[in-house]
Structure formats: structure tokens, C-alpha cells
Design brief:
globular; 37% helix; binds zinc ion
């Protein structure tokens, strides 16, 4: 396993950790200030949300690289299936263009839930695979890969039709495109006793690894993620399995925390994040 106590260059900030993906949360630091604060601390990269980028993808990508880091990913396409999914792939293609403009290789997909008129998840997964295949062809021409992120099963219905890494892999197989893989987020997979086996199967399809913690008493299923070390997820064991599968890429910290971390000074959040990354991840 990589030794993060000595080297934090694999550490990336997902700007959601500073409240940046939702209105009314966080300290409202401009993108430039976030970039400088990450570079000062020796991080290797940043993951942005589309709303922060607007028409400035190329400029922001260059700014990140000038600061000595990489744009590790972009969150995310609109839902591709389920309630609220747009009827076309236009916006999804625009998010591929934004990822390409930023110079990042990874665009995350949160799939959306159960397709209206169907029940369960399997039919939705089939529909999803067809749409992912189409988007993947467009993304391949722009050197962008699509990372399907399975979500904790409590997000089934309206947000996801992928509950496990195994689910995501089956859609990868069905989509049949080389630039489609899986994002592994500890918040969503920590409970899965079959995880190590699924990760072995995933191998080089693992496109991202997302860090936070599962608080013992979660107060809000979306916005109460814990800082690494403050919960019950076995972070070292999960990373061991991710790395044993062959993943050696960035580890992005993604903490939605309306009651705690989003209320704090971003400098404190970043300092604690770095310290926990070195010691408990
Ligand atoms: Zn995630």
C-alpha cells in the first residue's frame, strides 16, 4: 500500500468538501483561492463541480496545472435515467466538453434512479447501458472517460440504479466501451462485504477513489458525511482492496456536511483533511 504519511501527492480535494456544490453553503471561496490553498498544502489535484466552472474550463484547468496540480475529475453528468433525467444527451455531452476543456480525464456519472414506467433496477440498468454507450463514444473522441459511481442503496429510487460496484461493472460490460469504468466512494460501498471481490474484478476499470467516513449515527443521508477517522468505515481495508485491484491514482476527499464541515473555516477543513489523509486513510 502507498505510504500517505510521507507523500500526500495522491490527495485531491473534491470541492464539495467546502460546500461548493450547493447554494447557501460553505464560505464561498472563489475557485482561484481554492486552487492556491490546495497547492500551498501540497495536494496533487482538485475535482470540480460543473457549477463552479461555467465557461471558464480551459482557464481554470490551466490555472490548476500552473499551480503544480492536476484536475482529477469533474462532477458530474445530469442523470441519464430515472425521474428528472433530461430526455436527451445534450447536457451530458456538454459536461464531456467541459471535462475536456478542463483537461481532466474523468467525468463522474451519478446515474439517476428507476426509469418511469419500470420497477426495480434491472430494466433501468439496461436503458442506462445504452445511453452510456452513446455518451462514451462522444467522450472517447475527447479523451474523456466516464466513471459510473454506485451509490449507497438508500439512494435508490430517485438518484441511482447502481447500488454496488458489481452493478456498475455489469453496466460497463453491457456498454462495451473501453472508456467506461467505476468510481469507488467509501460512503457508498463501506458496508459491502463482497467489495474486495468486486474490486478485483473491476481491475483497471477503477477510475476514481473517493474518501470520507460513515458516521455511526448519520443525521442526514445526503449531507452528513464524516471526515476520515470520525466514523466506522474501514478506510485502510478499503484502500488496500482498491490498490490490490491495481488502482494507483488519486484519492479525492468528498465530504457533504451541512451541519459540521461546511460551517467551518475552509483553512481548518483543509488542514484537518491533510492530517487525516496522512494518518487514517
Ligand atoms: Zn463520490
Amino acid at each position: 500500500m502507498r505510504d500517505f504519511s510521507r507523500d500526500i501527492s495522491p490527495l485531491a480535494l473534491n470541492t464539495a468538501t467546502l460546500g461548493h456544490n450547493l447554494d447557501g453553503y460553505g464560505a464561498g471561496w472563489p475557485v482561484e483561492r481554492v486552487i492556491d490553498a490546495c497547492a500551498e498544502r501540497g495536494l496533487g489535484g482538485i475535482v470540480f463541480w460543473r457549477r463552479e466552472i461555467g465557461a471558464r474550463a480551459v482557464e481554470i484547468g490551466e490555472r490548476v496545472r500552473a499551480a503544480g496540480m492536476e484536475v482529477v475529475g469533474l462532477c458530474r453528468t445530469p442523470y441519464l435515467v430515472g425521474p428528472g433525467a433530461p430526455g436527451t444527451l445534450d447536457e451530458a455531452r456538454a459536461s464531456v466538453d467541459m471535462a475536456a476543456g478542463l483537461g481532466t480525464r474523468v467525468l463522474t456519472i451519478v446515474t439517476g434512479g428507476t426509469e418511469p414506467g419500470t420497477k426495480g433496477v434491472e430494466e433501468s440498468q439496461k436503458i442506462l447501458a445504452g445511453r452510456v454507450a452513446k455518451l462514451a463514444a462522444y467522450a472517447a473522441e475527447r479523451d474523456v472517460a466516464l466513471a459510473l459511481e454506485p451509490l449507497n442503496p438508500m439512494f435508490g429510487g430517485n438518484r441511482t440504479c447502481l447500488m454496488t460496484v458489481r452493478d456498475a461493472l455489469s453496466v460497463c460490460e453491457r456498454a462495451g466501451a473501453p472508456n467506461v469504468g467505476v468510481a469507488v466512494d467509501v460512503y457508498h460501498v463501506w458496508w459491502d462485504t463482497g467489495l474486495a471481490e468486486s474490486l478485483r474484478e473491476a481491475g483497471n476499470r477503477i477510475l476514481g477513489y473517493h474518501l470520507c467516513d460513515w458516521r455511526e449515527d448519520t443525521r442526514d443521508m445526503l449531507l452528513d458525511r464524516g471526515m476520515m477517522g470520525d466514523g466506522v468505515a474501514d478506510l485502510k481495508a478499503i484502500r488496500r482492496a482498491v490498490e490490490a485491484a491495481g488502482y494507483a491514482g488519486p484519492c479525492e476527499v468528498e465530504i457533504f456536511s451541512s451541519r459540521d464541515w461546511w460551517q467551518r473555516d475552509p483553512n481548518e477543513v483543509l488542514d484537518v483533511m491533510v492530517e487525516r489523509f496522512r494518518t487514517v486513510c
